[in-house]
């Protein structure tokens, strides 16, 4: 293995990890019938003259498995936050009690659970495609290095390295999908 020409596998791994992070974020946004504070992360409300995430307007808690509460700090913003939740497309009807907004999470029916598993599978496929794109970039770097005089043994070594990193990340995606689908189908 020559010391002059090396492939930056750390960069490839970092980029593949980025695809995994994006997948975990997408999975967190899927409503599984179980309460999660991350459900309200993407929701924003118009407050103090600008668009603000509602988790910056109050304390988000999960006091029980099917309930999310938001304790709004500014009493004047309770209606604004409630309206933002209604219009967010979460399909949850907020209930207000003073400055506390309660979000009861309804049970999912079997049909909706199956739809959500398909959505989760699509998210996982997007992550796999992103990982394969990073793999392709790595293989292109190897081809370029081969053209710059990398030995045949080094080419095989680096190709095996990139393949190993790719397989490891794809396996993690598959495992995450399996766990998420099991969580969605759990009654």
TrEMBL record:
SUPFAM superfamilies associated with the record: Ribosome recycling factor, RRF
Protein localization: Cytoplasm
GO biological process: cytoplasmic translational termination
InterPro entries reported in the protein's UniProt record: Ribosome_recyc_fac, Ribosome_recyc_fac_dom, RRF_sf
Entry keywords, A to Z: Cytoplasm, Protein biosynthesis
One Gene Ontology term of the molecular function aspect: ribosomal large subunit binding
One of the record's GO cellular component terms: cytosol
Presence of the UniProt keyword Cytoplasm in the record: yes
Assigned protein family: Belongs to the RRF family.
Function, in words: Responsible for the release of ribosomes from messenger RNA at the termination of protein biosynthesis. May increase the efficiency of translation by recycling ribosomes from one round of translation to another.
Protein name: Ribosome-recycling factor
Species the sequence originates in: Thioclava pacifica DSM 10166
Gene: frr
């Amino acid at each position: 293995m020559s010391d002059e020409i090396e492939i930056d596998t750390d960069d490839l791994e970092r980029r593949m990890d980025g695809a995994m992070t994006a997948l975990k974020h997408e999975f967190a946004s899927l409503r599984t019938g179980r309460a999660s504070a991350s459900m309200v992360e993407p929701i924003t409300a118009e407050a103090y003259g600008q668009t603000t995430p509602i988790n910056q307007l109050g304390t988000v808690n999960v006091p029980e498995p099917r309930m999310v509460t938001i304790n709004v700090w500014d009493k004047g913003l309770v209606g604004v936050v409630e309206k933002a939740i209604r219009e967010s497309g979460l399909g949850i009807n907020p209930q207000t009690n003073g400055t506390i907004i309660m979000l009861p999470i309804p049970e999912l029916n079997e049909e909706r659970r199956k739809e959500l598993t398909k959505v989760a599978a699509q998210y996982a496929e997007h992550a796999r495609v992103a990982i394969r794109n990073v793999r392709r970039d790595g293989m292109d770097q190897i081809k370029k290095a081969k053209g710059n005089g990398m030995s045949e043994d080094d080419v095989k070594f680096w190709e095996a390295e990139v393949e190993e990193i790719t397989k490891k990340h794809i396996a993690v995606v598959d495992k995450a999908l399996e766990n998420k689908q099991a969580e969605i189908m759990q009654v």
